[in-house]
Amino acid sequence: MVSSLQMKEKHHIQTLFLQRCRNDANSTTLANTLEKDIQTVFNSPEKFILELLQNADDASYDGRPVDVCFRFYDGYLAFSHNGKHFDEDDVEAICDNAQQKFNGKKHNLNKTGFKGIGFKSVFVIADCTYVISKNYSFRFDRDYPEWNANKSNMDSDDGNNPHRRYPWQIIPIWTEPCDIPKLLELNPDDVNFLFRLRLNSDIIAYALNLLRNTPRTMLFLRNIHNIVIDNHGCTTTISLRKLPNSHHHYDIYLNNVLTSSWHVLVYNVAIPDVTSDQLQAMGAQECPEKLKNANSIDIKFAFNINLHGKLYPMENATLFCYLPTSVNCGLPFLVNADFLLNADRMQLLSNTWNNFLFQTIGKLHIVSLAEIALIPNYRLDVLNIFVRLLQPYTQQQFINAYDNGITTEMQNTPFVPSNTDPLRLLKYPEAIADSTEFFKVFPGIDPALEHRLASYELNSTNKLQHQFNLYELATIIEKYSCKSTSVQFQRKLLTFLMQRFVGPDSLARASIGNIQHCLSEKRILLAANYKLISSDNAYFPSNKHEQIYPKFLNIEAVHPKLLLIEGLKTWLKMLGVKELTDINLILEVENVVKKSAESFKAELSIEIVTLLCNIDTSLISENSVLSCLPLVTKTNDLIAAKYCYLPSLLSPELDIENIVETHIGVVAERYCILNGTESLRKTLLDIGVQQKLSLCLQVPFCDIDHGRIDCFQEYYQYLISSKQDEFLAVNQANIAYVPLMRYLSNENYAEYFFRQLMEHEDALIQNLRKFENLFVSDKHGDNSCTSYLAFMLSNTRCVLAEDGKHYKMSQLCSPALRKRLGRRLASLLPQMKCELGQSVIKLSPELMHLLGAYDALSVKDTVKLLQIAAKDNSPKQQKFYKRIYLAMIKSKYSHDDERQLRSHNILLLASDNSLQRFNSLYFISDDGCDVANSKKLIKSLPGLTNEAMSIICRYFRIRNIKQTDLRITYKSLQVNEALKKDVVNLFKLTASIEEECEHEKDSEWLDSLAKISFIAVKGFILVYELKPDICFEARVMLHDQQLLYDRDCPRFKRRLLEILVNHFDLSIEATTLLFELASMNTETDRLDWLTENGYDISKLGNNIADKQRNRASSARKRKFAPSYNSITEGCDIDNMNTSTPLKTDVSCTTAAMITKRRSRKDLDASLESTFSRTFVIALTDDQSSFNLNSKDCPSNQSANLKFASSVNRHGISLEPHENNLPSNNSNIVTSRSNAINLRNHSLSASKITNGKSLALNYKHIQDDSLNSNNVIDRERCKTGKTLVAEPMEDDRAGKKLVFSLLQQHYRKKYPKCNYEESEFGFVLKGVDKHDKILSLEVIWCSSDAHSDGLVDMEIIKNSDKKFIKIKSANKDEDMVFRADANDWKCMRLWGERFRLFCVYGVGQPDNARIKKVKNPASLLLADELVPVEISFKL
User: Fold this and answer.
1) Could you tell me which of 1016, 1014, 1025 has the C-alpha nearest to residue 968?
2) DSSP element (H, E) containing 336
3) Which of 25, 497, 652, 1063 has the fewest CB atoms within 10 Å, i.e. is most exposed?
4) What span, in angstroms and rounded, lies between the C-alpha atoms of 119 and 337?
């Protein structure tokens, strides 16, 4: 029978149902919002357990204990508690959303919840929730049938989820008790909740296990004391029990088994007015009304007690707001406070209230520690649970608030137990932790400090601010050591220190360096005289030291009784106590020198030297301070030892005292009286006294003694005047210490001085170059600074010249200028004398330049040399003018120099070889014009380009006439089509046959050639239009597509070809071939010659090729129409019929002089053919000249083609090779020059020493018989001390040497590239130092010992090729090697891409060296590389 009360509750539920089950737009919106909020706020299924516990905790009757129970079985979860049953307000609240109407919890500070949404968390796990509390029995059901009954009235787009149209989570449905599932038995006296689960049972089991495993959740619940968990019959009971007779001790039991104990402290904290005002300004969702109305709050600390009854720091102590949050700030204990949290109660909000709580927690932390320190059981654990700073992952504002609170309280509240009194506490800033236990061993030694010591039994003393460790002890140990000088006390003190620093019970291990740093200067050792000494001045006792060593050393010995302590001597050695050895005595003397540097006396210097004479001074280090020991000199001055010299009495290697005949810092003889001669000599040399003058070049420039600037006062004044003194103060790399510069006029001293420069030439050049680089890098702009040596040598007339006079170095010409001028002209200028005494002085051009010798010809010297050249009537006059012109061009005169030059009456060579005043001469610079010799034109000397002659003309203001300034006149003209046809055919033949020709470009200039008219004229005159009275007789001129030539001019055809070659910019190879073909009479001769020399005539066309193939099989002999006489300057071929084929000079040198260089492509297979011309090249050092130009030959010997040997600037010469010359009736006459052995030349070279990877194993090189094609007669090829190259074994070894050098070079140059070895060499792939893509391959083309390829190696860098030919010699002497026809053609066609490597001394790998010659063909054709011998096949 239903009671009246039950009818009332049922009516209440039905009324709420009717109010909330309206199916309208508002209900739909509310349903969607409610579902979204539940899923957002309670995104973790296990949160419902905490919310149920909170509701049960808030349902207590007047603070009575509440027991709760979870029962989980077969898809249902039951939750019950014995707290207060539901009333109407509770029902209204649970059926409401966020307590919009009923807000009882909002104003009750004893209730945890206030937002009204906590119960909604159950809808995350359940789709049906039953509530049974006394007369109330209702449910919230997602699947209620009435929701589906109204499906037809719902929007079609949401028809699949009809329950979502109703806010079913807040719509109560009355449920009769009989309709409640009977799966679990419910106690009617309890408040019961039954949940039909919608989630997997594993999730519910996980949530219950989480509660079981974290029982500390109960610590801060107000009323719940027991929790029962029944998981399918498996029951767990969690109980919170307070220890009897204790207000702070709580135990947590799991199934009646103690799992943890806690010391809980509760503090009531008043809320300041300022904080309360800040709370009022917060919104209702951020801060509950009950907190806004509160005057105070409770903050609880829970400290974990371990099994031993000690307080133990927790590692994962999260903050609680009655229920746990996910915030861990690093505190070692649990804290519960009224934190303001986000919606899911897991994170703290960033606001002023939480800041206030953290500040208060910091203060209460110190207060709680002070309380705990007074509890005997926990007294020694206070520092275990002390935290000075929160973890850095905490919000910074909370860290700052906590730090502010704890810092303030630490200054005022003592909490550290004292060592002197168990009941006395120390404040944190004054407490000291003695980790050494020094004051425990020596009590009463420092009462003031001991009063601040924390208890030795205290745990975690490393958290204290002040630590008395070994280093602190070491800093004040001297103070305690002075307390007593008794042996007993000192032994106890040293024993303690030794045990603490290195003993087995050491608190902190210390390295030897740290020990010395801490204790070395402390006076803690008792000396034999009962004085306290430091270890760095202490020595172990010796029986004889007091009698042997002088008192100035101040040597103290350790008290012998201290050494009776076991192990002490070893430890003292670690501290720096030394044995009395010679090396230690030297160190003591060095200390005396350092300390007495400013007030040194002669008596002390003599005592020190006397002491050093009695010990082994060979132990003195190279950079010892004893080199600065002041020594008494013969002038009674005190000068540092390194600046003094041995007196004559001690037999120095160089008796400077007698050479310069003055006192320059010679050691006084007073030292000789007190010491033996030999021991004194050895001692002085060991401390740095010099026995000869030497340059300061063997040390890095940064180590040069900066103090010696006073020895260079003259130079120093120069630096000050040029405002460079600050620069020198930092960078003195330029100073090479030679203090006797003024004595160079003495030939004996000059010989020694310049011999020193020769011996240290490389170091000196490096030294002076570094000075220049430092000066430039110091950003001095255009200012210049002269090095010390250059300044001194150019400041005084101290250098002896060849004429017997003394000059300044700046008045002497450099070797480079002498070489440029030649021996005859250079002898007219002052130059340093090479023969001094018994020595031959030969300084390199670079060093002479760095020392101040001039390499630019002055105007004065130029005028002098030009006047002398004008008076010379010998055949060398032209050569003199050429050398002077070259020196003038190199000198780069300024405008003032030019004006000074033109102020003299200077005669220059005219083109007719007469001498004319420079202001009466003209210059025609156009390559398309060939003018007859005239006294009005300046002579263009062989080897000087138009650009070079233009510079000379600019110096003298000689008028430069261009073709546009000339007017052409002639008497008659005649177009010569036959000549044109022959020339065109000749050019076509050259263009077609020339290998690797550029077809497109060749086609262009052939088309241009066809457009040119060949016109023969008479009386060919060029009139200078600005001065019509000035006219010139022309020979050939290319003007406006007309090639005019004077038919009466001798050899006009040769001049005509030269004009065309220059006009079309033919390469050297094409020009050589052109003149070779032009020298032949007929087309047949030309085709025969091409066939014999391996050219592919099929390129000429089918008709010509067929004609050649159908010729007689017998070989035709090559016929030249002109005799050898006709090739020379005196031949007469001008009257030849123009219809006949052209005949002209055959000369590679001629071709080179009238053409410009052009880049060529790689050589093709035709290079394998054998040419008859052979060169033999020698590396010599001759100074004579060479020119193959026939115009330079004397007229009376025009029938003979002469060769005069020469060297170029690289020291490489060639002489004629006679092997293939006819023995009888030859028109070619050869002459040889004496070759001079060249040791140092300017060619790029590599020195290879001690290279393991370059060592050659000659045993594995086959000893083949020598090939006659590769080796020439040594006796016939020797000139002077030349060496014939390339026996097969040497050649093979040289190639291996070059290949190894290339490997090392490129791997070092490109370290970022990957190195791989290929079949014929190696490959580097990657990026260079500029991070650009690089592919480099080195191919050893002739790796087979029998291979005889065109080249030996190829270097392919990003498709760019370079070719290397290697010549080797067994000895390190000048080399003569053979260049066959293929070698010569490779040199010509590859040009700039061809390298010649000459390897010397391959039989001695450790001393082998390599010289590299770049583009030898250009050097040969430019008259810079001269053949030793040349053979022609006739």
Assistant:
1) 1025
2) strand 334-336
3) 25
4) 22
